[in-house]
Hints:
Blueprint: H1 3-9, H2 18-21, E1 30-31, E2 37-40, E3 43-47, H3 60-73, H4 89-101, E4 106-110, H5 113-124, E5 130-134, H6 139-147, E6 151-155, H7 160-177, E7 181-186, H8 198-201, H9 205-208, E8 211-215, H10 230-234, E9 242-246, E10 256-260, H11 262-269, H12 273-276, H13 283-298, H14 300-319, E11 332-337, H15 340-353, E12 356-357, E13 359-361, E14 370-375, H16 383-401
Parallel strand pairs: 3-12, 5-6, 5-7, 7-8, 8-9
Antiparallel strand pairs: 1-2, 2-3, 4-10, 9-10, 11-14, 13-14
Amino acid sequence: MDIFDKIRKNRGALGQYQEQADGYFMFPRLEGEIGPRMKFMGKEVLNWSLNNYLGLANHPEIRKVDAEAAAQYGLAYPMGARMMSGQTTMHEKFEAMAAEFVGKESAYLLNFGYQGMVSIIDSLVGRHDVIVYDSESHACIMDGLRMVLAKRFVYAHNDMESFEKQLQRAQKIVAETGGGILVITEGVFGMAGDLGALDKIVPFKKKYKFRLLVDDAHGIGTMGRTGAGTGEHFGVQDQIDVYFATFAKSFAGIGGFVAGDKEVISYLRFNLRSQIYAKSLPMAMTIGAIKRLEMMKNNPELRERLWEITNALQKGFREAGFDLGRTQSPVTPVFFNGELEQTTYLIRDLRRNYGIFCSVVVYPVVPRGVIMLRIIPTAVHTMEDVNYTIQAFKEVKKKLDANVYPSDKIADFRN
């Protein structure tokens, strides 16, 4: 069989809809200046679909630093991987700042967050070790798990009874192999918006002697008294052994970092394959990351404004009778009951007639018959944006409940 025959027969759970969805429901093109108002298919829309939590993506101070750094260094410097020829004082400066910010001894700047997490898992465990991880872990964690020879046990999401059962299984194995246990969870779960149960996980460390790796992609900059993340929020930052954050959210950039004890980070520097064999983060992005971290530290009003908008939005939705699930963060999922076909009409209605753009999540990410519209508030949204969106959602829900949206075919966005 030609390997491409499989592609023709099975395009995957999402790929099967590519003819009807490509360019609109999937791979849509948002254009213009990054912010709450952008262009979609030539029309201005109120945009709730970017993880630009603190509004840094288009902040004038950020734009200035980005432009000056790009003009001075271009986008090629430094050439080569960090270990070979890509090390600079600016990379080291960011690492020192990041370690201090998240309360760790040391940090290492990553050229890309997703591959960084994959390599972190690959570097930390071997065939004698066991990984215990949350069932709703991000795809980058799942891909990291696929690479390793270590045994893996999954626990039901934030379920401590299930968690301890998996720890007990892991403990029996490492007692025989001489290996160790690595627990992996997230700080903020990016779909549902709830927090990893770090405060409940940490007390188990003494009994089961595991190390804790936390992916805090959505927590850095948004959670905690200073924005240092979900561990700070729970008061257990010192109990996180390996802290990971990406720049794709609050930092509004590309890259990421990992932080922990100096000995651990030194080991990772010499063993992370996605960093050793890949080009260093360009200088312009590194200098931009320094500026973003400075603003995160020195401008608490950005985080305060984010939470002002978040609280107003979530309070308004709940008072209007909407189900927001279990969110405890700015991530705001709004759940409806409906079929995939109805979802396409609802989204088309929101975008065309109400000028609202948000992400839509359907099966297999959520159960069949469930529609999840994912709203991401930011510090640069306004209360007018909040009130308008809640009213629009009320109206489309009435239409959905009244079966105004067809359930027998997918909407054609071209008509």
